[in-house]
Specification:
It contains six helices and two strands, in the order H-H-H-E-E-H-H-H. The chain is mostly helical and 272 residues long. It has two domains: 9-35 and 234-269; 68-232, Up-down Bundle (f41 fragment of flagellin, N-terminal domain). A two-stranded antiparallel ribbon has the order 1-2. The protein is rod-shaped.
Length: 272
């Protein structure tokens, strides 16, 4: 290939190769610095758009998880209060059975009746205190839980309120003042025990549904995050190896350019 004083073709080729190497090196260094092979739309518009959509879904699932956890706590508080009420009903039945004894004297019957009324008051306190973040599933016209179930807020998981007030259990007027009243109290308490057990079962089923869906949503979010990582994250081991290769190539390119630039000097030496 003939040499030209006007155009140093060797230097031009060396410079083009060096520029290409520098461009590759800049991309690789950016990937190592950010940890991503697609850090912005200019890297790969289609992949960036897909990743952003999936990130939006993952972020929305944070709200779903918060809703499920919040409402799960409300249901669990209701269950705890309901179990307390169930235990109190067992004590009420014991007192009512004791009051059924026709041989009791007036003082003993009065004492049993006072204890019975005190236990009824504990049921009321349990209902009133079954409150979490403003939600109470046990009071009259209690809160029905509706937890978010998906990232679009188009689906919810519902747990119906289960009223466990004295009036709802039909034991608010029960007393143990006489053997006849005690008999009525026994029947009312037995019915209340059955009612509370049924409503606790419904709450337990609801709590399990919330827990199962919460676990699913967390796994779904993890899967989405991994998928986004597969789309945009750089292979740092591969990029590190490539960085070393490009740095070596860059050094060789600089040397090649230097050699090409010396060709005109060599040409001048022929005229000395």
């Amino acid at each position: 290939m003939p040499n030209s004083v006007n155009t140093n073709l060797g230097a031009l080729v060396a410079l083009q190769n060096l520029n290409a190497t520098n461009a590759e090196l800049a991309v690789t260094q950016t990937r190592i610095n950010t940890g991503k092979k697609v850090a912005s739309a200019k890297d790969n518009g289609a992949i960036f758009a897909i990743a952003q959509n999936q990130r939006a879904t993952s972020n929305a699932l944070n709200s779903v998880i918060a809703s499920l956890e919040r409402n799960q706590s409300a249901v669990e508080v209701a269950i705890s209060a309901g179990e307390t009420i169930s235990d109190v009903l067992l004590q009420l039945k014991e007192k009512a059975l004791a009051a059924r004894d026709s041989g009791l004297d007036t003082a003993s019957r009065t004492a049993l009746n006072d204890e019975f009324k005190t236990l009824l008051g504990q049921i009321t306190k349990a209902v009133v205190n079954a409150d979490f973040n403003g939600a109470n599933l046990l009071k009259q016209n209690g809160t029905t839980v509706k937890a978010l179930a998906n990232a679009d807020a188009t689906s919810v998981i519902t747990v119906q309120a289960q009223t466990l007030t004295l009036s709802a259990l039909a034991i608010d007027a029960s007393t143990l003042g006489t053997t006849a009243a005690a008999s009525l109290a026994i029947a009312a308490v037995n019915a209340a025990i059955t009612e509370v057990s049924s409503k606790l079962s419904a709450l337990g089923t609801g709590a399990k549904a919330l827990n199962n869906h919460l676990n699913f949503v967390k796994k779904l979010q993890d899967t989405i995050d991994v998928g986004v990582g597969n789309l945009v994250d750089a292979d740092l081991a591969k990029e590190s190896a490539k960085l070393q290769a490009l740095q070596t190539k860059q050094q060789l390119g600089v040397q090649a350019l230097s050699i090409a630039n010396q060709s005109s000097t060599i040409l001048l030496g022929l005229f000395r």
